[in-house]
Specification:
The chain is an alpha+beta fold. It has helices at about 45-60, 75, 100, 130-145; strands spanning about 1-10, 15-25, 30-35, 35-40, 60-70, 80-90, 110-115.
Length: about 150
């Protein structure tokens, strides 16, 4: 089992997600979205992992607002995923220099960082699905509070 740390990065009335389209062994394509982040390296704190992964995958820096949830993903991905709410601080999305962006032989398929509007989150295949549902609930509650 390993720990992954991910950033739900708020920007322009949405969050930054990574759209992945990966070929399967049977030739079909797996089309899905993920929250940016990744595996914790030995000796790293959660926030060090988060900042390193965000810089590698997206080319940006973030301000961390709060820890949202620790999600037990051992059944599917043999990991505990820790999600933080962040705000885009600096940098241009898509300028990361991590292996997903630079090693196209190892990371086949499409790896596209983009902003998904809050109201569209429910319509994308965000994995894990439980996180998508949590985000939909969170942003519906925020929207309802603003109406009061």
């Amino acid at each position: 089992m390993h720990i992954s740390v991910r950033g739900i990065i708020e920007k322009d009335d949405g969050i930054i997600l990574i759209h992945r389209i990966k070929p399967r062994e049977d030739g079909t394509l797996r089309d899905y979205y993920v929250v940016p982040g990744g595996k914790q390296e030995k000796g790293e704190s959660n926030l060090e992992t988060l900042n390193r992964e965000i810089k590698e995958e997206l080319g940006i820096t973030v301000d961390v607002k709060e820890k949202l949830i620790e999600y037990d993903d051992q059944a599917y991905n043999d990991s505990i995923q820790i999600f933080y709410i962040c705000i885009h601080k600096d940098g241009i999305i898509g300028t990361g220099n991590g292996p997903e962006m630079t090693n196209k032989n190892e990371y086949k398929g499409i790896f596209e960082p983009l902003v998904v509007k809050y109201e569209e989150i429910k319509n994308v295949n965000l994995v894990p699905e439980a996180i998508r549902d949590l985000l939909v609930e969170r942003y519906e509650a925020i929207k309802n509070e603003k109406k009061l």
